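Before relying on records like the one below, remember that each one covers exactly one chain. Contacts with other chains, cofactors or solvent are not represented anywhere in the record.
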Amino acid sequence: MNKPRPKAKLSRALGIPLTRKCVRYFERRPFPPGVHGRQRRRTSDYQVRLLEKQRLRHQYNISETQLRRAFDDAVQGPGKTGDSLVSLLERRLDAVVHRAGLARTIYQARQLVAHGHFTVDGTKVDRPSYRLRPGQVVAVRERSRSKPPFQLAAAGAHAPEGPGAAYLSVSLADLRATLVREPARREVPVICDEQLVVEYYSR
């Protein structure tokens, strides 16, 4: 039997499955790893907010610095800070690639973007943190389309379960996705109480 991967242990620590493969490990052991994982623990308000911040950070596979920068941008923008924060993170290039079904996981999306396989409006972009604006088009570069990951994507292997993101217009056959508009919080399938994240950074 294959041993659980590190992401499976991280999923158990965070209380959420981070990838589809982690789901079965998480369902079998839905408690934190370690000898004290099954024990009930008293948690402080700080720990609750910290856990929520870590959940959000790991679902987007970003560093603490990147999350803090996005939070600072969200504070400056209009509307509720928590909603704006999630919307900004969802507009990252790697997040759009993953959500559109052009990559299996957010981890693979980050790697594929960093290796220069994507263009935005026809220009090569290799920064996973690149923030898309409504109307911009993401596409797999012509020279990369024959590679196995993108052949699988074109066949729909990584398509999201159920209806796709309403803020994206996706053509998997063409390996292309357009950010139609800014994502609304209710449309973004991340498991997080973003208000707790706001409270964590505002303490």
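The radius of gyration is 18 Å.
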